[in-house]
Amino acid sequence: MRKKNNKVVQVDNKTLFQPSSKRQEQFLNSKAFITCFGGAAMSGKAQPLNSKVLTVGGWKTMGDINVGDIVITPKNTHAEVLNTYFHNNKDIYEITTKSGRVVRACNEHLWSVNVSSRKKKSFNVVCDTDKIISYMNEGCHVYLPICDYIGSDVDVDLPIDPYTLGILIAEGGLTTGKAIFTNTDDEVIARVNEYVTSKGYMLSPTKDGITFRIKIKDFEKNTRNSKGQFVKENYFSQALSDLGLAHTNSFTKFIPTDYLHKASINQKLELLKGLMDGDGTISESNTCEYSTSSEKLKDDVCYLVRSLGGIARVTARYPTYTYKGEKKQGALSYRIYIRLQDSSDMFYISRKKLRCKERKTVINDEIVDIQYVGKQDAKCIYIDDNEHLYLTDDFIVTHNTYQGLMRFLWYVDKPNFSGY
Q1: pLDDT digit string (tens) for 268-325?
Q2: Residue 388 and residue 410: Cα distance in Å, rounded?
Q3: Count of Cβ atoms closer than 10 Å to residue 139 Cβ
Q4: String of b and e for 219-244 (b: at least 16 CB within 10 Å)?
Q5: Most buried of the four, 140, 167, 235, 401, by CB within 10 Å?
Q6: CA distances in angstroms from 44 to 61, 299, 396, listed in the order given
Q7: pTM for the full model?
């Protein structure tokens, strides 16, 4: 066994350990003939109890995570929680990324990051919060990885096809409670029409020729609504009502819970395509945007994108317009800048899809700020996964605790051992 450059431990030119904290570097730099280091998992790598962790049953707080729980990894695999450790009154820091995602952890909590600077080539490393602060103080850029598509491969029963619902949310005039949307793109109209036709309905254009009502092909029966009024029976209008979308407007629209949390990966992609085909844009430089006046819809679109391995960054502004010669201020508008590894996953229609360009580098999210926020009770977990990564708040990729600095010694005499 030997030390190389006081930075890594190697056996037969194979790296067995690379320090992830200042204390571990000090251990490797020791000049003593024999040095012992207590590197147990419970040594302090933790998140506050109210931090979220994604499990197979949905999001749970760190405080509610128990041994035996199954968490979701960034590669959309499952890992069992093998151990948990409680920490009282830990110093907690708030980490903010360029896209606006926020997560909290202690100074010893571990992260898998990419570090780059002008002086040296970028490299990947597992290090603690303290080390990230050190890198940033040196002028380095530190990036968090982005997860893969997260979710099931099995479609679930949903009342309205996700693409069509995306169009209705983006382009629908739902204030009357009816399934109506306005669009001028033949490809969008044809795709929605194909779906509603399969359900025994049709698109009926209004006088302007660009607004369409989804109506049944045959005679629509009259029925009484909850107010005793006679209305036409319509499956889509009823489905919108059941989803809570009927009578919403541009300020109150949202994505129903089942489409965000129960839908399969493919169904979520279809929903995103409906939203982006309807109200999204893509520039010649491959910049994708979605705009909305609904704060809830803004949050839902960000969640949808992040669950699909994307980055969503939000800006807000008050647009202005001129009415009768007078300049006026419009309602607050949210602009969401969206990046997926493959932009073409967001569109069906040709004029938008043709602008999509292949990204030459893997997308990631830069850490731009780390601030001390005070002391909190915290907890760390150890999971049964080779990479030891799990998903926390806003689908941020983070690292679990190490079982022990010297664990690699357990395997040194194993003939097939290749590193730990």
Answers
A1: 999 999 999 999 999 988 999 999 999 999 999 999 999 999 999 999 988 777 877 8
A2: 19
A3: 9
A4: eeeeeeeeeeeebeebbbbbbbbebe
A5: 167
A6: 18, 33, 20
A7: 0.84
